[in-house]
Amino acid sequence: MSKAQEAALDIYRSVGFVQNYSDLRSARLVARRVVRAMETQPNGTKERDMGSEYLEYERRWIFWLLIFVAGWYGAYTSALRSGVFCNAQTANVVFLAMYLARQKWLSAAYLLLLISAYLFGSFLSEWLGKGVKHLHFLRWDTLMVALEMCVVVFLALMPADWLDQICQVTLNFVCAMQFNTYCQMEGLLAATTFVTNHIRQIVATLAMLICYPESHDLRRKLKAHVLLFLCFTAGAVVSTVMCGFFSYTSLLSALIPLAAVLICLAWADLLVEHRYFDAVLRGY
Question: Whole-model pTM?
Answer without folding.
Answer: 0.78
